[in-house]
Amino acid sequence: MLRMTTLRCGLWLLAVASLPVAPAAAAPASAAHAARVHVIMIDKMQYGPMPTGVRAGDIIEWTNHDILEHSVTARDGSVDLDLKAGASGRFTVTAGSHTYFCKFHPTMTATLLVR
Ligand SMILES: [Cu+2]
Fold first, then answer.
1. First to last CA, the chain
2. For ligand 1, a single-atom ion, which residues have Cβ within 5 Å?
3. Whole-model pTM?
4. Please, which residues have CB within 8 angstroms of residue 44's CB and are 6 or more apart in sequence?
5. Residue ranges of the EfeO-type cupredoxin-like domain (predicted)?
6. Could you tell me which of 52, 61, 59, 51 has the C-alpha nearest to residue 34?
7. Distance 66 CA to ligand 1 centre (A)
8. For 35-114, which CATH superfamily applies?
9. pLDDT digit string, tens, across residues 70-110
């Protein structure tokens, strides 16, 4: 009798051990891409190189290394960031091609591509 009980317990353990492990819940699509911060330097009256691989929801941080005030102003009016000398500012971007210019020095322009 004892032998039969041991055998049953052994079979039960084997059955439990072979149960498939439930897969982890799939992450929601919005969480699949963690927002990244891209830093753009403003120096010598120019916007630094535009970062590549920018995706919607990422953060762009602009740092003004000049001794003059600059702005990062979107042509579509969605952004208008005034940056005094040495100041930094940031905003979150949406998908598309975004063109920025400086209100104080309109020859300063940049186009940022966001996927
Ligand atoms: Cu400027």
1. 70
2. 70, 102, 104-105, 108
3. 0.72
4. 66
5. 25-114
6. 59
7. 9
8. Cupredoxins -  blue copper proteins (2.60.40.420)
9. 999 999 999 999 999 999 999 999 999 999 999 999 999 99
